[in-house]
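Q&A log
Question type: sequence-to-structure
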Amino acid sequence: MASTHEDEQSIPTDYEIAQSVDTKHIADVVEPFGLRRDDLELVGEQKAKVKLEAIERIQQERKADGKLVLVTGMTPTPLGEGKTVTTVGLGQAFNQIDKEALVAIREPSLGPVFGVKGGAAGGGYSQVLPMEDINLHFTGDLHALTSAHNLIATMLDNHIKHGNELDVEVNWVNWPRAIDMNDRVLRETVIGLGDIVTGLPREDGFILTAASELMAVLCLADGIDDLKERLARIIVAYDTDGDPITVDDIDATGGAAILLKDALKPNVVQTIEGTPAFVHGGPFANIAHGTNSLIADEVAAHLSEYLITEAGFGSDLGAEKFMNIVCRFGEMEPDAVTLVASVRALKYHGQEMWPPDLDELEAEDVDAVRGGFENLDKHVENLRKFGVPVVVALNRFPGDTDAEVQAVIDHCEDDLGVSVAESNVFSDGGEGGIELAEELVAAAESESTFEPLYDLDVPIKEKIETIATEIYGADGVEYHSDAEDDIERLTGHGFDDVPICMSKTFHSLSDEASRKGAPEGWTLEINEVYPSAGAGFLVALTADVLTLPGLPAEPAAAGMDLHSDGSVSGLF
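Response status: OK
Response body:
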C-alpha cells in the first residue's frame, strides 16, 4: 500500500519536477482530441487560447458530451488535502487506462501564490505546465479582469463627479476597486481627497480580483453576447430611491466587454504526462461559485470521454454550488463525484484541542483518524443527497502509516458503504491514480439520479434554510442586521427565482471557523443578502468573509528569487 516514493525528501520540488519535463508543443498535445492548430491562438509553444469560433465548430461536430467527474473534498485544513493534485492526476490516470480524459481547473491568483497557500497548478508528478507561467501572469486573464473591474469603478465615480444624473446615493455604492494581490491595507479606503477637481470624497475599498463579480460572470458566460448581457445587468450602486443602478446605466458595458474579449477564450496547457488541461477563470468558492469556466467545461466535454473538473474548498461550498448553480446554468450534471480525504485532515478534525496541534498530525494516531470520520461522513452524506455516485479518494502522504490508511478504507467500505481508493498521484503521477480512476469509471457508468437540492421558484428564505439544514447541519437560520429587509427588497426587484450562493467560512461545516468535525446544535446566522445580478445568483453573507486577504507573517514571496540564468527558486 505504500507509495513508490517513500521518502518525502526524495521527491524534488514542484519546480524542479516541472523543469525536468520535456513538454510537447501545445498544438501537438490537443490534436488527438480534435483541436486543430488553427483553432488555437498560441501564446508561445506551451500555452494557447481556444478561439470562440472553434468552440462553435466543436459543438456542431460532436453531439455527445463526455462523462463528467467532479473532484471535491472534506473540510480543508491549513495543510491542504490535494484536490487539484487529484484532479490533474486523475486526468493522467484515465488516459493510462485508455479512457480519453481532459482536465479543467481554475487559474491561480497572485495573492495566494505570494501569500501562504501557494499556487494552484497541482504538484509533484501531477501538475499542469508551465507551472511558473500558470501561477504568475499566465495569459493575462486576471489582469484583464482587474482592468475591466476598475474601469467600471472609475466610470461610476466619473458619473458622480459630472452631475450625477442617475442620483447615485454615494453611501450606497457597492462596487469597490480590485487588485490581484493580498494587500490588507486596501480593504477600507477613502477616495476623492483633495480639492474639488479630484471628485467627491467617499469611503471605498479593494477586493481581490478573484472575488470580483466579473470573475463569476466570465466563468458563467457562454459567449460574447451572454458576457455583455451579464455585464450590463451588474448592480454597482443604488439611487436615492433605492432602485438599482447597473453597469449599463453608466455606459460601461462595451468598454468592460472589450477588456474581457480575450479573457473569455479558454486557456489550454498540458499536464506532466501530456494530458490536455483547460485552466480558465478562478472565482472564490466562499463568495462566488468556485469553479473554472463553463465555456472550458463545454469544449472539454465535447472533446473527450471524460471531463475531470474541480470545485473549490470542501463539498459544503464548492460541490454544493456546483450542483445547485453551475449545473443549472451549464445544463449539465456530474456522472460521479470523488471526495478527496487525507489521514492528516481526519486527524486534524479528530483532535479535541483547539487550535489543533499541527505537529501532532505527523505521529501515527489511528484513534485521531477515527475521530475525524464524522467530518468525512457528513460530506459523503451531503453528496449522496444529489443522487450522484460517490468515491472517496484517500490522498496518501509519505508520513501516513498502513494502519491509518487501512482504518479509513475499512470505515468507507464497511461503515459507509462507499467506494474508496488510495491515491498516490503526487508521487507516482497517473500510475498512482489508476485504482481511483477505475473506481470512478465504474461509478460514472452506474445509475445516477441527479437532482439539485432545491427548486428555484421557492422563496429566498426556504432556499437558504435548505442549504443550512441539509448541507451544513444547522438546526435553523437567524437573520440579523438588515438581512430581512434585503430579502424583502430583492423579492420586490424580482430576484427571488435565482440560486443562492452562500458566503461562509471554508474552515468548518458551520459558520464558525473553529468548529471542527460535524457540528451539531447550532444556528446559521445571515447578516446580509445581496445580488450578483450579472452572475445570476444571490449571495447570502453568513459572516465577515475576507474579500481581500493579507500576507502572513512569513509570506511565500520572501523566499523567492530570480537567478541570472532566468530560473526561479522558492515558488514552491
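Response note: Residues 141-161 form the longest helix (21 residues).
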